[in-house]
Known about the structure:
The complex is a heterodimer of chains A (about 220) and B (about 220).
Chain A (H helix, E strand, L loop, with lengths): L1 H18 L1 H21 L3 H29 L6 H6 L5 H31 L6 H26 L5 H29 L6 H28 L1
Helix pairs in contact in A: 1-5, 2-3, 2-5, 3-5, 3-6, 3-7, 5-6, 5-8, 6-7, 6-8, 7-8
Chain B lengths: L4 E10 L2 E11 L4 E5 L6 H8 L7 E6 L2 E2 L11 E4 L11 H11 L4 H10 L4 H5 L7 H15 L3 E5 L7 H16 L3 E5 L3 H7 L2 E6 L2 E4 L6
Parallel strand pairs in B: 3-8, 3-9, 6-7, 7-8
Antiparallel strand pairs in B: 1-2, 1-4, 4-5, 9-10
Helix pairs in contact in B: 2-5, 3-5
Amino acid sequence: MLRDAMLVAGKDLRVEARTRVGLGQVAPFAVLVLVLFGFALDPDRGILEAATPGLFWITVLFASVLGVQRAYAVESGAGVRDALRLTSLSPGGMFLGKALALAVQLLAVELVLGVGVIVLYGADPAGWILLVGTALPATAGIAAAGSLSGVLAVGLRVRETLLPLLLLPVLAPVLLAATRAFEAALDGSPADGWPWAGLLALFAVVYVGCGIGLYGTVLEES
Amino acid sequence: MAPVIHLRDVVALLGGFPALTGVDLDVDAAELVALVGANGAGKTTVLRVCAGLVPVDSGTASVLGEDLTRNGRAVRSRVGLLGPSGGLYDELTAMDNLRFFARAARVDPADVDRAAERFGITGRVADSPVVRLSTGQRRRVALASLVARRPQLWLLDEPHGGLDAEGRDLLDAVVLSAVASGATVVIASHDLDRTSALGCRHVTLAGGSVVEGGPDAA
């Protein structure tokens, strides 16, 4: 399964390296959302600073919707899904590969956004260990839930509009926990944030487990 | 010896619509069969049922000894399906596509290189994203991918479409070579002259069932 996962992840990242959609469109979109939040809340700098963790993760969720749509758009070409189903790839491996590639791209977007909130919102990344310890499981959870929602929607004509409705409610717990953990890190009280990071790790395990177990069935039915 | 493909009264629904309404078909090992019929007759659906991609809603169906009514997935890794669209990633190069699908099918990389060379997937063509290739070149890439896998059952849907004269002759040679080596080939085609020249046994479909050349014909 891990061999299949690495093969699929390598393929998806090669597609991204050739098309640069993540770098050229998703990352700029995410930065643009940060800027727009800044415009909307700038009259009261205190609100902007207080809201930085939530705005960061909401922006990540928006970017993840685009990333998931892109990850499955490359497989919506005629005959590609049939070609994949005729391979010996394990469904669990395919899921892990899609999630891994998505997670790598989301982490890159989060890095850009991290610089963005420091520059635009004046965030202080003193608690960077907790920030990293939050971002990794949160991203794993988002990528896992996104990969499962993506394959669910890929066979539908209304996939572009349906995907956010499927994905965002599932990610609400991640948004909540990641925001609380980031608040603790930026407030200089990281001890309050680690339980939330632990909860994110639990979410990630649950989402990954569900994905490995359900991906094959969903792929067949989609 | 049991037939490679054995379908009896197979019904398959696509989106609730009966695409196959009771297909009877037997294909023996190392046989070359052409499915013919008008558009919508069910040729492509028969190929996809045999590949384990479309579930059988009623009837009995076995392919390469696997019961498709129980587990259609079991047969997939032993079947090669060439659809009209090729099933390639547009954004990847021809060689990237060949290597990815070969590794996914546990194929020896040396077989991929040989197949690529045989179909002229070299130089600029090999390194071009598939989206920039002509229809015929894409067809060659898909065929090279199929040949590298060496499936036991080849299911070819309008395989000559988009190929130039040289490509069509090459395809015919590859098909005959596959049959000679023991593979079974089923071709869905409108090109009766071509399939006759290949020596195919013709099976005619209409309205989702076999109307000529089925098991009862003998």
